[in-house]
């Protein structure tokens, strides 16, 4: 498996024998970019399963890496536009999937919403972009920030307009939506959607780190997320 960094913009993980069967374009979460250990581990393990993986940094994260100073994410509309540009830049005849960690997964899923995101964002997905996509994968979906359950509706209302299937790998202890909170009737009714597949990661937090008492390790849980993702991809290609 070859790992090639293209500056601070993106990193490509690819088998040297060019035996890849699909491409996954993946975005990072709000606080850590594509050089983060979690991102690198997931991308490496997925690439080892004959999937070409391209991880990229949003513009604000590139600036953070360059300056060493923390910056807030770009406005959501800018994140969506940059993600679309990255999708259009994928030069491959292979099936294309998009993915993201936390915020990156939310943005990826928004791109897959057929009717756009309304006047608040003034964003309608580019049909040339959505036509390229087979599916979407989220790693730790930020359903609702800790202490703000009212955000759930705002962050999931576009699920009803998904044009491709969405796989969500979610830690059972994720503070942005754990097993207990998402099992309520209110939340189950939203997630009971044939386009959404929710796969639980044992004892995992928002980055899939488990409790020591669980008997699982972070590496175990990342491997589980990779296995879930690979199965999802295989169903759609």
TrEMBL record:
Residues 21-234 form the KANL3/Tex30 alpha/beta hydrolase-like domain. Pfam families: Abhydrolase_11. SUPFAM superfamilies: alpha/beta-Hydrolases. Gene3D superfamilies: alpha/beta hydrolase (3.40.50.1820). PANTHER family: TESTIS DEVELOPMENT PROTEIN PRTD, TESTIS-EXPRESSED PROTEIN 30. This is KANL3/Tex30 alpha/beta hydrolase-like domain-containing protein.
